[in-house]
# Entry
Amino acid sequence: MGRVHHGRAGCFRDAGKMACGAAFRARRADGYARARRLLARMSRSRRRAVLAVLSVSMVAAGVVVYRLREAAAPASVTEAERPVLSSVGPRLTSNETSQPLSIQGERLVSGLSLSLGPPLSLRLPLTVVDATHAYARLPARLSLPAEAPQAVVEARLVGPDGTESEGSARLTVVNDAAFTDLTAMVSAPDGRTLFIASSPTDTVFALEVDSGRVSRLATGDGPSALAAWTDADGRPWLGVAHRYQPELWLYALDAPEAAPRVLPAPLGAEGLAVDGRAGVAFVAERVRDQVRALSLADGRVRWSAPVDPNPRALARWKDLLAVGSLQTGQLELLRQEDGALVSTVAPGPGVAIVGGNTERFREQVMGGKAPRFLVASERLGHVFMSSLGPNVGPNPQRMEVSANSGVSVVEPSRGSYVRHRGFGAGGTEGLALDDGAGLLYAADVGLGLVRVLDARALVSGDAPARRAVLQEVAVAPPEGTPRIRPPEDFGVRGRAGEALHSGPSALALSPDARTLYVLNRFTRTVAVVDVREAKAGKARVVRQLPVETSRAQAKRRLGQVLYYADLGRTGITCDGCHIEGHTGGIFYEKTQPNRIYRSTTLRGSRDTPPYFTPASHISLVDTVRFVGARNRFHNPAPSPSEVEALALFNALIVTPPNPHRGEDGAPLEAVELPDGRVGRPARGRALFEGKGACTTCHPAPLYTLDQDLATRGRYLEVGTPVALPLRLEQQDLAPGAATPSLVGAWDVWPLLTSGTAGYGVKDHRLVVETRFALRALLETSGPQHGDARALSSEERDDLLAFLLTL
# Structure
């Protein structure tokens, strides 16, 4: 209730403030007494005149008081005045961490809250910025039944008195917090304990390899990268970097009861490497696409270096740090001392490809594909990189989707990409090197194998590299593991075996190099492999240690297997083009029209059908059925249960929380752009909705026409480049594209269907023309695509700042 002041005394009345009322009544009684004494001294005629005036005054005062009270009474809100909820975005979110929400509506006012129905049953305070825009933040770790992969809740606006406003929206919350996903593993320096991270569940498991005992470490929000080392004093340490919490946690392994030391670190950490003797941690992060060198003593930033988009894989070699970019496919070599760029490494036309279906297309190579893991050999003077191999561009045979998973060899002293040893099938992920014995171990998540490779042969030449595979060790899933198909469908007609249900993804070698530990992502186990006779091709799995045994969300888990598996042994998988559900750069693909395309992100894509360019599949189920069969070359066609599981897994891939939002979920007042300039999102939003006319094709809440059935599937020609200018005679230059969602655009590179916002062409190969793809898109677009050239420099900065907050 508002405060009403009562004269010189300065008192005020809140609801129920009785002292203020008493003081007012006392002053009123004193005034009446003084008036009676004054009237007694007057003549009769004069008293009559004064009383008449007072009577008129009292009547007038009564009218005024009545009208004031009438005005102060709360007016009933008519239907035409009630707030209206139009939409909430994004429509798909997660309980993995705190998530910002954008609310669009009409007649929004302060005091409103966002009410979320069962099973969440909570109210979120709104930050209302104007009559049509408000923001909220969904808390982290919202509890849902473990077996439920998602929950659909109804969202409504509620006033301070509990009255619901007009309109509602549906919000889907993915239950990531109950879906254990083991993606990183390191061994303690003494080899007795393995540390294993599950980012969605905020868990780091400690597995004692002798006893099989499993415990959990306290961690922050989203543990994403691990490293173990011994410092200059001989003390063993574990480091945990986090995806959603800007902290690096340091655990003294010789003092297990001690709380971890917490150092400031960049938000969005994806990679971690440590020089223990120098006391430096190198953290790769995806928010600003940088690598930072942090002092382990106090967290001080020694240097920060911009790198290619979405850096993850890191490896130290002598005085260099190798950094792999998931979205450009390039490897950058930085000086560990100061972060200076020494060289950029990527394959080009004519690079050596040994093995696999891309070997005959070496002259048409246009660049690299995502480095998934790196390991450096001091003795051999090379860095080994797991990837899908060189990226084959337009070619006379129209061979497309050039996946050839294997191990690439890089010579850092010369900054050169030496060769790629392709396996022609599967998906190579984690690597482990026995430098003394010259053995390289490679995990294949798509086939369920670990390959034993002769590292010396890989670096010696093309002919020796062809003979480098010494053994393939199948990692069978534990008894009782659910299968994607009946047992008789595996290992026949050239298909992969049942081992694909395991999902080997990370490796760790014991200090004596006699035992290899294999982290199995799908079965949540660690396979123990005796590698004492690996050089003779006699490595063998001796046991499996369970890390987490829950069978919750079983159908989603089968969908995860299908996403990564290469049942048909074609080398083509969902993850091959969409790494971890995100974009994987660009590919020459699609048959008709066949040209270079950007690999789109799958984050939140369930809400924006149809799919492909031009649009050809109207639902996620339809798309999964078509793509799943094509990936396997119809060997065999996906069963209805496989389609259902894979569609479910894809439908639950969520856009991560935007880092440019505040604690209340609203955009920051000012955002520093990747090129160092600063923009103001609020002014950018006004330009987006007004002068820029961007909402014509990118309306809220998902900022695409494909978000609603009435506007879905429009194929527009807005004058943006059709294709990258690389062998255009071998590309089908069909103009037009669907409007992509802009949600999460802060983390997408390159942009445009053609990939021309980010990439360029030089010397018959692709080059990174700019890391700030949004600015390239904005400043090269013509009148049909917003014509940002009509905006001032400051306006463009503001518009870019707004786009980064979506």
